[in-house]
Amino acid sequence: MPEDSAGFADMGIDPAILKSLEEMGFEEPSPIQVAAIPALLEGRDVIGQAQTGTGKTAAFGIPLLQRLRPDMQRPQALVLAPTRELALQVAEEIGRIGKHLRVRELAVYGGTPIDRQIRSLRAGVEVVIGTPGRIMDHIDRGTLKLDQIRTLVLDEADEMLDMGFVDDIDKIMGYLPAERQTVCFSATMPDPILRITKRHMRDPVQVSIAREELTGPTIEQAYFEIRERDRVDALTRIIDHEAISRAIIFCRTKRSCDELASALQARGYIAEAIHGDLNQAQRNRVLSRFKDGQIELLVATDVAARGIDVENVTHVINYDIAQSPEAHVHRIGRTGRAGREGTAFTLIHPREFRHLKLIERATRSRIPRRNVPTPTDVAARALHLLGERIVSLVEQGAGEEERYAAVASRLLEEHEPERLVAALISTMADPRSTGGAGSGGGPELGRPAARTAGGGADFPDTGGEAGYVRFFVNIGSRDRATPADFVRTIARQAEIPGGLIGAIDIHESFTFVEVPRDVAQRVMEAMSNATIQGRNVNMEPAKPSR
User: Fold this and answer.
1) From 11, 27, 60, 280, which residue has the greatest number of CB atoms within 10 Å?
2) What mean pLDDT do residues 459-469 have?
3) Rounded mean pLDDT of the chain?
4) Which domains, from first to last, does the chain contain?
């Protein structure tokens, strides 16, 4: 059994569910899951006092799925939730956990046409998640039969109480078989909820998980909304624009850690992965290199990052959004230590927006949106940082002014000062002069400058981002090509830093690659003799989509 699922495997969970948990990136059970899952798997009723974000959906969802009878295409589990949003969230989570069981789940709620829900119920579903009002509506219409329900879950029971659903809950319970498992999760336990549990539950096991303090007052946060295919490119632009030189980047799974670390290395960043597949000696070696500053970017899973206490980590980046608010706070707490300021960025796909709002509510904080920097933004930021460094050298002294004084005087006599300084800055900002990404020139002179978009050959509009030329390449995923293959080959053939290469969009039989306009001709000529995965490369300017 993979290490990611070791804690869950000890609980006797079905291998098909364990496979889903591994794919979802669950590395070990949360406290509420440790407390509740064994009792629920035994068939016991459970009262759980736990707030949103503690992992309670998986705590009741895993046993709920394991108790289903696959030969019965009837509702066997019912989850009552106070809101449409929570019902959808629970349905999505149960769908992911039950992926390899081929379970059909359905969220039912008001405010939408009921006909579609009726058709889904008639087609057959095993798990129904819904708001009490819409559940009652289906019961009254005869479109939802509850005679085969084996598990009932009251999720966020106190919220349902506040919204006036207590009478509906009592009525719904009256339609359920007497022999069933009843589960109640609530952040608080007011008297009406306690009365319901006493009346409808049999010798329940009680578990209580206190929420940790979820604050990070010295940490500045922001999120970036990205397209999935642009995730790596967006990350590198953020790193370059912010001139990040020491950061922990969190991924959900070990596999994504390795893939991201490889992609960053191919682009010239000094990055390494740390996760559960590394033995202790390997982990210690990686951590030592990170502490000593030999590694800029540490790509980690949540469990692997525990116990990491490294000073001067300026940024935490959630490449994959955290599974829970607690995990989010643990992650961002790796920066801003000892009273220092820190910054935490989160990359999200639009479908993850609801999960981000959940984290905001649980942590009582607002995470503002920022736009992913464009190549122009990155280039401008690089020049700004370069100017700051030059000013610092002038003010503090480089230590060898006398050695260069005579040459400086002669140059100032022969040339206009503004043109002279501009020429020197141009030379310092040229990626071929500084060595580009990963050259050791530092963030001020390395990667940001390497993304400068200038003039170059007269290419037509190819649909690339501003300052970039988009190329069509005759190699795709069926050739087993990866982004790292394209970055390495282009960088080697054209003798340019990997950090220059922009978006890479791989399709089955072809790929689109973007490179800065000022090196596009050079790249196209250099790739005429290249191979990727044993195939000869044919690269030509792409046609813009209309």
Assistant:
1) 60
2) 85
3) 83
4) 3-208 (3.40.50.300), 219-363 (3.40.50.300), 375-450 (no CATH), 468-541 (3.30.70.330)
